[in-house]
């Protein structure tokens, strides 16, 4: 009969030999012999590893290591088993979730970096065509100023020529930009639609996919211009009528100032509401009026955020253009003054100004198009859960290891990537199954 102090099968000498690790001794009991306490058994979720910084101990209990330990202490603690959500899927230029300001600006830059030859090449063509009229007008003005160094009478015609140089070239340049920037917006929006999934598009392929949307884009630009110009004409008529009715100059100036402030608010409102019409026309293949209605609905609930991002984007592009163009303009002015209005100096001046304007525009044009396109994608994610559609498609594309040529159809409101299953084999012209 044991008194609790002699050897027994339940003591360490007789028990541990028959137990698998990590048990090195009998369970604690008031009848066990005195000695060091047994090592603790791994708790739930440890499984012999160190979840809070200690190295793993295969086959043995968890021993805390020198790394950061469990966040026990003052303050709120995460619930047991809490794990942070996984990062958003990012197959291309943006994460496939509702976008923040940094995501939109970074995505516009990644659009340029992901396909620099196509994007910058197309932008350079558009920038050259838009910069040539301005460069010619500025060269004429600088040439007359340079000629006035030796002949002050050369400044007699600066007033008339300066007006033509300052405003005539602007009108011509605006007309040219109306055409080339509209074409560029359509092409770059199509490239962006593929770049969201990590796909690349050649210039020829982008043009073939977007040329059918050019009439809709021209219609959008024409209607936008009409909406913005009609109030200007009305304001001018009112101011002239007040002046002709014998109203004092102070009254006319006050009315004009109030009208200008009202017009600025009106232009900001209309431009923001219709800012997403061009991406909708290209990616959703909508008509002119339908694209404008689509943009109006998408901006609902996010007007102030959209307006703020558009204003910030314009400020950024202005600063980029200014910083890039100033050195070329300064060099052109020096050459014009040094050349004293000679033909060679005027040619060199025009070339320098054109180069400065081209370099600045070939960076800002795709940046503006990228921001507008990503704002459109963000508004669809926030209002239509469109990120789930993009994520499903991206997961299937990652599984197959290629980007479907018809991934552009995912931007259609009625298109879905379909249920998981066999997809068409790789190749141009493959299509997603539709429900």
Automatic annotation (TrEMBL):
Claim: Metal-binding is one of the keywords in the record: no
Transmembrane spans: 119-142, 170-193, 214-243, 263-283, 303-335, 347-375
InterPro entries according to UniProt: GlyceroP-diester-Pdiesterase_M (IPR018476)
Coiled coil spans: none
Stretches assigned to the Glycerophosphoryl diester phosphodiesterase membrane domain: 262-336
Signal sequence coordinates: none
Region (Disordered): 1-91, 415-435
Regions of compositional bias (Pro residues) in chain numbering: 33-43, 53-89
Key words, A-Z: Membrane, Transmembrane, Transmembrane helix
The protein, known as: Glycerophosphoryl diester phosphodiesterase membrane domain-containing protein
Organism: Streptosporangium sandarakinum
């Amino acid at each position: 009969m044991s008194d609790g102090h002699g050897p027994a099968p339940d003591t360490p000498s007789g028990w541990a030999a028959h137990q698998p690790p990590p048990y090195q001794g009998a369970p604690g009991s008031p009848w066990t012999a005195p000695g060091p306490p047994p090592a603790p058994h791994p708790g739930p979720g440890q499984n012999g590893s160190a979840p809070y910084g200690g190295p793993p101990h295969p086959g043995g209990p968890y021993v805390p290591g020198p790394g950061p330990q469990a966040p026990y202490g003052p303050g709120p603690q995460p619930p047991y088993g809490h794990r942070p959500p996984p990062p958003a899927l990012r197959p291309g230029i943006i994460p496939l979730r509702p976008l923040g300001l940094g995501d939109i600006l970074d995505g516009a830059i990644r659009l340029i970096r992901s396909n620099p030859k196509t994007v910058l090449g197309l932008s350079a063509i558009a920038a050259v065509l838009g910069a040539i009229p301005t460069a010619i007008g500025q060269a004429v003005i600088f040439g007359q100023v340079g000629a006035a160094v030796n002949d002050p009478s050369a400044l007699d015609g600066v007033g008339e020529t300066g007006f033509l140089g300052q405003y005539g070239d602007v009108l011509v340049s605006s007309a040219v930009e109306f055409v080339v920037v509209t074409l560029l917006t359509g092409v770059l929006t199509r490239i962006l639609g593929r770049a969201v999934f990590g796909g690349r598009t050649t210039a020829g392929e982008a043009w073939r996919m977007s040329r059918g949307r050019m009439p809709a884009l021209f219609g959008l630009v024409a209607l936008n211009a009409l909406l913005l110009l009609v109030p200007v004409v009305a304001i001018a008529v009112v101011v002239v009528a007040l002046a002709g009715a014998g109203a004092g100059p102070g009254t006319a100036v006050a009315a004009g100032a109030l009208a200008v402030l009202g017009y600025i608010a009106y232009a900001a409102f209309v431009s923001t509401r219709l800012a997403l019409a061009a991406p909708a026309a290209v990616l959703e293949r909508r008509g002119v009026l339908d694209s404008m209605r689509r943009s109006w609905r998408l901006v609902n609930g996010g007007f102030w955020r959209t307006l703020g991002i558009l204003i910030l984007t314009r400020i950024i592009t202005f600063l980029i253009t200014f910083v890039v163009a100033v050195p070329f303009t300064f060099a052109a002015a020096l050459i014009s003054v040094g050349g004293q209005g000679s033909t060679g100096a005027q040619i060199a001046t025009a070339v320098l100004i054109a180069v400065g304007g081209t370099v600045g525009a070939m960076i800002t044009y795709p940046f503006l198009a990228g921001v507008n396109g990503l704002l459109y994608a963000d508004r669809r994610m926030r209002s239509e859960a469109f990120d789930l559609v993009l994520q499903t498609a991206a997961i299937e594309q990652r599984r197959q290891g290629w980007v479907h040529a018809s991934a552009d159809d995912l931007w259609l409101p009625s298109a879905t990537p379909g249920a998981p299953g066999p997809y068409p084999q790789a190749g141009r012209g493959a299509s997603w199954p539709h429900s």
